[in-house]
Amino acid sequence: MKRILSIGLSALLYLVSLLPWWLLFRIADLLYLLLNYVFGYRKNVIDDNLRNAFPEKTELERLTIRKKYYRYLADLLVESAKLFTISPKEVAKRVYVPNADLIKSYFAKGKSVIGVLGHYGNWEMNALRFSQLFDEKRLIVYKPLSSSFADKMVKKMRSRFGATLVSMKETGRKLIGLRNERTVTVMVSDQTPSKAETQYFARFLNQPTAVFLGVEKLAKITDSIVVFCDIRRLGRGRYRCEFVPLYESPKHTLANEITDGHVAYLERVIREKPEYWLWSHRRWKFGPESLNS
Fold first, then answer.
1. Average pLDDT of 61-87?
2. Which of 18, 66, 215, 231 has most Cβ atoms within 10 angstroms of its Cβ?
3. CB-based contacts of 9: which residues, under 8 Å, 6+ apart?
C-alpha cells in the first residue's frame, strides 16, 4: 500500500510539474487564500518568529510581513513542483547570475569554493542553476529527510543537472577525498542542529541561535574560499543570484569568525525583504540555557 501511494504521489507531482507557469501561479493564488484565510498555516509559529525577530516593528507591520510571506510560500510551492521537469534552458532564463566568472577565477588559481545560502527566495531553483555553471565537481550538501519518499524525490530533483548530493555527515570525508581537485560546494547555513549536535550559538535575528559549524570547519580544513550566494527575488519564478566573497583566506580567520560572518550576511538579506525567508519553520527550538538543564 505504501509503495502504491508513493507511486501515485510521484505521478501527481510529475503531472503538476508539466503545467505552464501561468496556470501554476493561478494555483498559487488559490493556495495563498487557503494558507492565509482558511487554514492559517502555522500562524502561531510565524507570529512568534516575527515577534522575536522584529520586536521594534508594530503588530500591523508584522501582520503585513506574514501576509506577504503566505503569498511567497504559495509561489514557492508551485515553483518547486515545476523543478522536477523544468528544462535547463528555462532555469538559465529564470535565474540570472551576474558574476559566475568570480568562481571561475578562483578555480584558475587552483582554489575550491564553498557557497553559503539560506532558506531564502527559491534556494532549490538557484541550486539547479548553480549546477549548470561549472564543469568542476559540484556538490550540494543536504540533510536527509525523515520520509524516504520525500528524500528520494528531493535528491532526484536536486541532482538533475549534474550536481552530486552529499549528506551533512559525509561532507567532510567527501571533501577531504577531493582535496586535490577543484570543487564548489553549496551549503544551506540556517538548518537547525539537534541539541546533541549544537556546539555554538550565533546572534541571529535578535536572539541566540543554534547553528552548524560545518561551513567554517570545512573551509579551514580544505582551505576553500567562502562566498555567500545572495539570492534576490525579481518576480514570480524569477531570481538573481550574486556570489559575494566573504573569506578568501579561511585558515587565517579567528574561531567562529566565518560562522558569525555568513550568519550576519543572511540576516542583512532577510531584514531587507523579510517575507522571502522560511518563517513557518520552527527555527528556534531551544536556547543556550537548555543545554545546561
1. 97
2. 215
3. 149
> How many beta carbons lie within 10 A of that of residue 40, not counting itself?
14
- Residue 285 is assigned to a structural domain of this protein: no
Q: Which of 47, 82, 117 is the last residue of a domain?
A: 82
Highest-scoring range by mean pLDDT, 143-147, 177-181, 219-223: 219-223
Pair 98, 22 in one domain:
no
The C-alpha atoms of residue 82 and residue 86 are separated, in whole angstroms, by 6
Cβ-proximal residues to 202 (8 Å cutoff; 6+ apart), any chain: 208, 209, 211, 256, 259, 260, 263
Range of the domain at 32: 2-82
Question: Which residues sit opposite 241 in a β-bridge?
Answer: 231
Q: Would you say residue 11 has pLDDT above 90? A: no
- The CA distance from 14 to 27, in Å, is 16
Residue 7 pLDDT > 70, yes or no?
no
Q: What is the pLDDT of residue 20?
A: 97
Which positions ≥6 away from 119 have C-beta within 8 Å?
188, 190, 277, 278, 281
Phi, psi (rounded to 5 degrees) for 163: -75, 150
> What's the confidence (pLDDT) of residue 84?
92
Lowest mean pLDDT among 21-30, 175-184, 215-224: 175-184
- The total domain count for the chain is 2
pLDDT tens for 255-268 read: 999 999 999 999 99
Residue 210 phi, psi dihedral angles, 5° rounding: -65, 130
User: What cell does 71 get?
Assistant: 503569498
Q: Taking residues 207-227, what's their average pLDDT? A: 95
Residues ≥6 apart with Cβ < 8 Å to 201: 208, 209, 210, 211, 287, 288
